[in-house]
Design brief:
CATH architecture of the largest domain: 3-Layer(aba) Sandwich
GO molecular function: methyltransferase activity; RNA binding
Number of domains: 4
CATH class of the largest domain: Alpha Beta
Helix content: 25-40%
Number of strands: 12
Pfam family, one: FtsJ
Strand order of the largest sheet: 6-5-4-9-10-12-11
Distance between the termini: 98 Å
Domain Ribosomal RNA methyltransferase FtsJ: 63-329
Keywords: RNA-binding
Biased composition (Basic and acidic residues): 360-373
Largest sheet: 7 strands, mixed
Order of helices and strands: HHEEEHEHEHEHEHHEEHEHEEHHHH
Structural class: alpha/beta
Number of helices: 14
Shape: globular
Length: 398
C-alpha cells in the first residue's frame, strides 16, 4: 500500500496531504520487533500490511492541518488563553485553527468559509463546532451570521406521503380498473375529478423540488436546539487567502465582545499590489513588510482596536512566503480632536489677522533680491500675479 495512504488508514494522519508532510519529516517502518527500521523515502513507497510505523517528528500529526501549528505558536508567543471562550474562525477551510482552539480548551468554535465541503469529518461531527459554508466574511453582519448558523444547524423536512388525505376514487373506477360499473352515477364524476387534480398537484410539487423551486421547510437537527449561535465572541482568529485583511476586518470587528481579543494571520502577498510581488507569488523585498504592518495597524486603529503585538508566524506559508500574526484588543480609546473653547478661539483671532497682514516694503525687496538669483527667469517669476510677473521678466531681460 502507498505510504501516504497507509498513514491515513492507520490513523496517523487525517488527510493524505498531512501524511505527505509526515513522510517529509521522517517515517520508518518494520514488520517484526527485531527487524531493522526502514525509512520511507517518498509518498509512493510500498508499506506491507501489518507493518509497525515510527514517526520521527509527530508534530505534523497533532492537528488536522499545519495551520494548527501556526496558531499554537502564536498563542504561546502572546500568552493568550482561549480556555472557556467562544471563538470565531474566519476562513475555516479543513479546520487547522479550529482544531487548535478546541485542543486549547475553547468551549465553542463557529467557523466561516467561502468554500464547501472542506472541513474535516472529525470536526464536522464535533458538537462544539458550527460550520457555515459558502459565506463571504467581507459581507458579514451579526444578523447574517446568526441566520447562517441557524441554517447550518437545520435539516430539510421531507414531505411525507399521507394516503389518508388522498381523495377516494369512485367505487366503479376502483372495482373495475377504470371501467364504468352498472351502478355508476353522476355524483362519482366529482370524485374522479378530485383524483386527477390531486395527481397533477403531486406532479407539480415533485417537479418544483427537482428544479430547486419548491419552498424548503427547515427544522433544527436533533440535539442542536440549545447550541449558542449569538453573534458575539470572546476571541476571533482567521487564516484568509486572496483577499486583504483590510477588507474583512471592518465586518469581523463587529462580532467582538467588549475587550474581546483578535489574533489574525497576515499574508503579505495578499496585502500588496501585484507589482510588489515577485515571481511565483513570493514577496522577496523584505522592506515591504513594514508597509504591510503599517496598513494593518492603521486599519485596526481606525476600527477602535488597540494593537498589542505584531509577531512572526512560527511556520512559513506553504508557498514559502514569510507570514505574520497581529494581536489586537477591542475597546481601545480613540482620541477625538479637543473642542475649541470660546476664550481660546477669541485669543486666536488677533494672531490670524496678524498672519494675514500685508508684508512690509523691506520684506518685498528682500524677496525680490532672492528671486534675482534664479538662473531661469520663468522660475524666478513663477507664482507671481500678472503685472508683477511682467515687471520681473523685464528686469531679468536687462
Amino acid at each position: 500500500m502507498r505510504a501516504d495512504v497507509f498513514l491515513v488508514e492507520a490513523g496517523h494522519a487525517a488527510t493524505r496531504s498531512q501524511a505527505q508532510r509526515l513522510i517529509a519529516s521522517g517515517v520508518e517502518w518494520r514488520l517484526t520487533p527485531l527487524a531493522p527500521w526502514k525509512k520511507v523515502a517518498k509518498n509512493g513507497d510500498d508499506i506491507p500490511a501489518g507493518a509497525e510505523l515510527q514517526l520521527l517528528d509527530a508534530a505534523e500529526a497533532k492537528y488536522i492541518s499545519r495551520g494548527g501549528l501556526k496558531l499554537e505558536g502564536a498563542l504561546a508567543a502572546t500568552g493568550l488563553s482561549v480556555k472557556g471562550l467562544r471563538c470565531l474562525d474566519v476562513g475555516q477551510s479543513t479546520g487547522g485553527f479550529t482544531d487548535c482552539l478546541l485542543q486549547a480548551g475553547a468551549t465553542q468554535v463557529i467557523g466561516l468559509d467561502v468554500g464547501h465541503g472542506q472541513l474535516h469529518e472529525r470536526l464536522k461531527n464535533d458538537e462544539r463546532v458550527v460550520c457555515v459554508e459558502g459565506f463571504n466574511a467581507r459581507a458579514l453582519t451579526p444578523e447574517l451570521l446568526e441566520k447562517a448558523c441557524d441554517e447550518a444547524l437545520c435539516e430539510v423536512i421531507e414531505e411525507e406521503e399521507d394516503n389518508d388525505t388522498q381523495p377516494v376514487a369512485p367505487y366503479a373506477w376502483m372495482r373495475n380498473g377504470g371501467q364504468v360499473d352498472e351502478d355508476y352515477d353522476d355524483s362519482d364524476d366529482a370524485k374522479e375529478q378530485d383524483v386527477e387534480s390531486f395527481k397533477a398537484e403531486r406532479a407539480a410539487k415533485a417537479k418544483a423540488r427537482a428544479e430547486g423551486l419548491a419552498p424548503v421547510e427547515l427544522r433544527r437537527k436533533p440535539g442542536t436546539e440549545n447550541i449558542d449561535i449569538s453573534p458575539a465572541f470572546d476571541f476571533v482568529t482567521g487564516d484568509l487567502s486572496f483577499i486583504s485583511l483590510t477588507l474583512v476586518l471592518p465586518a469581523v470587528v463587529q462580532l467582538l465582545k467588549p475587550h474581546g481579543q483578535l489574533l489574525m494571520l497576515v499574508k503579505p502577498q495578499f496585502e500588496l499590489q501585484p507589482g510588489q510581488i515577485g515571481k511565483g507569488g513570493i514577496v522577496r523585498d523584505t522592506a515591504l513588510y513594514a508597509e504591510v504592518e503599517k496598513r494593518i495597524r492603521d486599519c485596526l486603529g481606525d476600527l477602535g482596536l488597540s494593537v498589542k503585538q505584531w509577531l512572526d508566524s512560527p511556520i512559513e506559508g506553504g508557498d514559502g512566503n514569510h507570514e505574520f500574526f497581529v494581536w489586537a484588543q477591542q475597546g481601545a480609546e480613540v482620541k477625538a480632536p479637543a473642542p475649541v473653547v470660546a476664550d481660546e478661539a477669541a485669543a486666536a483671532r488677533p494672531a490670524v489677522k496678524a498672519a494675514a497682514k500685508r508684508p512690509s516694503r523691506a520684506d518685498i525687496k528682500a524677496q525680490r533680491a532672492k528671486q534675482e538669483l534664479y538662473e531661469d527667469p520663468e522660475v524666478a517669476s513663477f507664482g507671481q500675479p500678472g503685472p508683477a510677473r511682467s515687471k520681473q521678466k523685464k528686469r531679468n531681460e536687462r
